[in-house]
Amino acid sequence: MSDSRYSYDENAEVWPYFAMTLLSLVLLPSTWKATIRAMKPEKNYSPKFENGYKPENYDDVEKFRMKNRKSKIFTKTNIFIALGWIILIVVAYFIHSQETPEDLKRFDPYEILGIPYSATDREIKSRYRKLSLKFHPDKIRNIVNTTREILEAQFVEMTKAYKSLTDEDTRKNYLDYGHPDGPQPMKHGIALPKWLVEEKGSPLVILAYSFLVGVALPFVVWNWWSGTKQYTKNGIHTITAANIFETFAKSSVDNVTFDNLIRLLANSQEYKILIPGIGADTVYDYLLAYLSREKVDDELKKLALVSRSVAILDGMLDIASAFKNAALLRKIISLTQAFTQALPPESNELVQLPKIDKERVVHSRSTLKSLFSLNDKEQQIVLGINSNDDLKIARAVAFQIPSIEILDAFFKVPGETTVTPNSIAHLVIKFRVAYTGATLPALDPKDLEEVDNSVTIKKPLSTNDIAPQLEPIYAPYLPVYLRPKWTVLLVNPRENKIVEPPSTVTRMYTDGSVSTYKIQLSAPMPDQIGQYRFLVEFRSNAYIGADAVRSVVLNIEPAPKVDEIEDDISDPEEDSIAGAMAQLRGGKTKKTTVDVSSEDDSKEEDESSSEEEDSDTDINTDTEDEEES
User: Fold this and answer.
1) DSSP 302-333
2) I need a labelling partner for 168 at 20 to 30 A (CA). Which of 44, 134, 242, 323 fits?
3) pLDDT > 90 in the chain, percent
């Protein structure tokens, strides 16, 4: 048996508190995070409007959505949290039901004697006398359910408590050290049983420690690190991102076709992870079948592939923006619209309506806007619909398709009225949402004005988050739910290149009110005075025909001249605060002059101050009367 220098927790007096503390440190923040996560609304959820239309693969789409709908409650994390709380409750119950050891109890003479803290000396002596007559070992004759040693220990404890309140030296020990016997020895122990550390259980401790440090911790760190490195900030796989960038870098982006983009999309690493062993050609065939709205033998596999496509296209758009080619960006956004509506790229906007004759609409030149200028009979002819009920369904969907009307766009420097060379400006876009067939209210010219205040000067882009988000898109063939958004492109029309990275608009008013969106320009304004023309493009990710384009002119004006005003204010002294600020600005200062007579003058002023205070009121009054006269 080894000579132990430590005391072990053989009676489970300490380790339950240690375990409870560790569990609390883990469970409390984890539970708080899980609660916040459960209370957050879902990013993607079903559209609130229903029109009665169900596509051919409706059952498969709903089956896929139900299969991939994640529960916010029954997750692996929440299950571990629940198990942790169960263990914590068991440990707390064990602590509550366990009696506190005598050596860990706090010495309280009032509690031992059973008297209140306000008891007087007379009450203390009376109480001790009664207890002595009752519990003194010499007074007890019949001992039942206890031993004489226990009774003697209780009587000694009562005597110490009495002396702690009456004897001067004992009371001093109690007040200074919390015990009548003076300072108590400090105990150092290990919150584990002795057998677990020094006997047969020691290999278990070593094995557990080795597993934790050598296996579990490296695995957690590697899993976290690999997860952060495998995907970009846009959520696409690094291999996919590298393949997209390499393809655009090696090819002429001006000649990229939709078929090239679909094949590039089909070669994404996400599909290979989702369905191991699947080839790019197979994915390509599935994607084409989806865009043609054709059912395949394994419809769920096709929907699984399509469910990742929109997210990958968003990442492709971000990578393509590095090449600044506006035509390429427009094609990627158009392909995103096609995948959202399950249609070939650049289809007629009427084709996204249900119940229509696709062959007739494909060759039509009508638009959603022009459709509602026709009567019901003419609408049926254009759409190839024979039933009034089918026409109502098609029109119900058309009413839910928003489009953008750009009212104005201009460049602005916060707090200034003009844009000067090399200044830092932002682009202000005034627009409103126009739903198909809806009548917008009259436009108030004041809504197009941009008025600066203290908030917009400090944070010009704060107005971008004021408006609410739009309802989820109508996309019955898409197996995931998405919110509509518009990608904003600022294009140089001469070179057909973007001058700023694309930005995204997700918030706007839908009641006809004017919305404002601002883009902070990353580069300073040109240093040459003149006019520069650009195009502002709103490109929808969800609906075909919901885009908007407007020309905007950047007018660089010379900086206003500030006339120098001569005044009698002299230059500040170099030792003053104003002098230090002037030196930082490169201004002039003068040396500090010392007035020898200032000290004598100050003494004379102090001596006469009392006399001046007496006549101060009269002097001020006379001065005011003179000014009034």
Assistant:
1) HHHHHHHHHHHHHHHHHHHGGGTBHHHHHHHH
2) 134
3) 33
Beta strand 530-540 pairing with 497-498? unpaired
Mean pLDDT, range 580-601, rounded to an integer: 51
Q: Are 60 and 13 in contact (CB under 8 A)?
A: no
So what's the pLDDT on residue 565? 42
Tokens of 222: 């590697």
Determine the pLDDT at residue 419: 92
DSSP string, 87-123: HHHHHHHHHHHSPPPGGGSPP-HHHHHT--TT--HHH
Instruction: Name the token pair of 159.
Output: 């005597």
CA 104, CA 511: separation in Å to the nearest integer? 70
- Residue 326 burial class via C-beta count within 10 angstroms: exposed 0-12, middle 13-18, buried 19 and up: buried
Looking at this protein, which amino acid is placed at residue 61?
A: V
**Average pLDDT of every residue of the chain:** 80
Q: Where are the beta strands (DSSP E) in 459-600?
A: 486-492, 497-498, 503-505, 515-520, 530-540, 548-556
Q: Smallest Cα–Cα separation from 502: which of 336, 343, 340, 368? A: 336
Query: If pLDDT is split at 50, 70 and 90, which confidence band does 573 have?
Result: low
Please give the C-alpha separations between residue 620 and each of 284, 525, 604, 612, 627, in angstroms, as whole numbers. Answer: 94, 57, 22, 11, 11
Higher pLDDT, 314 or 72: 314
Count Cα neighbours of 469 within 13 Å in the Cβ-side half-sphere: 14
| 433: CB partners within 8 A, 6+ apart | 402, 403, 404, 405, 470, 508, 509, 510, 512, 515
Angle at 142 between CA 139 and CA 144, to 5 degrees: 125
The Cα–Cα gap between 515 and 536 comes to 15
Question: For the chain, how big is the Rg over CA atoms in Å?
Answer: 41
Residue ranges of E strands in 522-618: 530-540, 548-556
Query: Of 26, 37, 36, which Cα lies nearest the Cα of 81?
Result: 26
Q: In terms of DSSP bridges, do strands 402-412 and 486-492 run parallel, antiparallel, or are they unpaired?
A: unpaired
pLDDT at 306 over 90: yes
Among 124-133, 157-166, 449-458, 522-531, which range has the highest average pLDDT? 522-531
Q: Which residues contact 231 (CB under 8 A, 6 or more apart)?
A: 237, 238
**φ and ψ of 320, to 5 deg:** -65, -25
CA atoms within 13 A on the CB side of 48: 2
Distance CA 533, CA 549 (A): 13
Report residue 595 as tokens: 């007035």
Distance CA 283, CA 240 (A): 14
pLDDT at 564 over 50: no
Q: What is the DSSP string of 409-473?
A: EEEE-TT-SSB-TT---EEEEEEEEEETTPPPPPPPGGGG-----HHHHH-GGGGGGSSPBPPPP
Phi, psi for 488 (deg, rounded to 5): -100, 125
Token digits of residue 481:
């739910």
Please list the alpha-helical segments (H only) found in 321-366: 326-341, 358-362
For the beta carbon of residue 35, count every other beta carbon within 10 angstroms: 12
- The per-residue pLDDT for range 399-435, each reduced to its tens digit, is 888 888 999 999 999 888 899 999 999 999 999 988 8
pLDDT at 588: 61
Among 195, 117, 128, CA closest to 163: 128
pLDDT confidence of residue 358: 85
pTM score, whole prediction: 0.66
Whether residue 338 is predicted with pLDDT greater than 70 in this model: the reply is yes
Q: Which pLDDT value is given to residue 590? A: 66
Contact 572, 579 (CB under 8 A): yes
